[in-house]
Amino acid sequence: MAKSILLVKTSSLGDVIHALPAVSDVRTVAADARLDWAVEEPFAAVPRLHAGVTAVIPVAIRRWRRALWRGRTYGEIAACVRNLREQPYDAIVDAQGLFKSALIALAARGTRYGFDRRSSREPLAWLYDRTFSISWELHAVERNRRLLAQTLGYEVPAGCAYGISTAPRRFGWLAAGAYVVLLHATSGNYKLWDESNWVALGDAFNSSGVSCVLPWGSERERGRSERIARKLRAAAVPPLLSLDDLGGLFAGAKAVVGVDTGLAHLAAALGTPTVGVYCGTDPAATGIYGCARAVNLGGIGRAPTPSQVITVAEKLAS
Fold first, then answer.
1. pLDDT value of position 122
2. Beta strands in the chain (DSSP E)
3. What pLDDT was estimated at residue 69?
4. What per-residue confidence (pLDDT) applies to 175?
């Protein structure tokens, strides 16, 4: 068993969360191993929540690509490479399977492992010392677990543990009492749930004495949060929240309801009762997975109704 491991899983938020159970698996079979994680800087807060991660190495490929004309960008890249090369690794595992993640693996010192050409989205097998065939039919969580297990030579343990937790956090803008978090924002319009559905859902929660919190990440999303909140009796539109703040908000919530977004995966991984609302994607591939207090509803062209969501949410939260 390797004694020092670098896991390369850079983005997006949901993908990063999907790699957490693989870290828990490694800790089950090799409690004393060093496991570092290279991740895009906006998502670095997630692996830091896992006690099994020894060190987090932030990278900023997304930001660097937009600022290659700035001299300081190259200084940041050089510092990141030095950070990656400071610790020699017995195994460097690229669980992202993209050219950018393969470059990160190449920058580090050690034997490189990854998906074979049929298991990866990009033809990268020639960049690794050894590759493995991992079925696309598996959920993303299980693909990560299989890759780490085959790389390090162990059987995937039973169960699925995300291994993260955080304390509930109270905010000055948050009214006292029970609240739910409604995550209406997502990366593509085809994943959105109609605003009228969010209003109906929020009204049902309000009727039960539960207020609603509607986070946002862009001005467009903020506008949607405010439109929904104006139609509810008890709703709060918070200021822009960091990933750490959102984790604390989820930890104290009665429930979280979210469309296909990484934040819904974070809430479920933290153990908060969570309902995933799927309208344009298939939850079988990348939906909320392995969380005892979470349920996926809907699918491609099969958006759930507000009554279906409230029934499941209340059952999970009871």
1. 87
2. 4-8, 34-40, 55-59, 89-94, 110-115, 130-132, 179-183, 211-213, 235-236, 255-258, 274-278, 294-298
3. 81
4. 92
User: CA distances (Å), 216 to each of 131, 137, 243, 246, in order?
Assistant: 40, 33, 12, 11
Q: Look at residues 138, 162, 148 and name the one whose alpha carbon lies nearest to residue 291.
A: 162
Q: In this predicted model, what pLDDT tens digit does every residue of 165-174 receive, in sequence order?
A: 999 998 999 9
Domains and CATH numbers, the chain: 4-152 (3.40.50.2000), 179-317 (3.40.50.2000)
Q: Is 228 exposed, middle or buried (0-12, 13-18, 19+ CB in 10 A)?
A: buried
Give the separation between CA 23 and CA 12, rounded to whole angstroms.
Answer: 17
| Cis-peptide into 12, omega within 30 deg | yes
Distance CA 48, CA 289 (A): 21
The answer to whether 38 and 6 have CB atoms below 8 angstroms apart is: yes
Other C-beta atoms lying within 10 Å of the C-beta of residue 169: 16
**What was the pLDDT predicted at 226?**
98
Average pLDDT over residues 51-60: 97
Question: What's the rounded Cα separation, in Å, for the pair 18 and 248?
Answer: 20
Which pLDDT tens digit goes with each residue over 28-52?
999 999 999 999 999 999 999 999 9
Which tokens in the block code for residue 142?
């299980």
Q: Note the pLDDT of residue 1.
A: 78
Q: What is the C-alpha to C-alpha distance for residues 78 and 100, in angstroms, rounded to an integer?
A: 16
158, amino acid identity? A
Say if residues 73 and 188 touch (Cβ distance below 8 Å). no
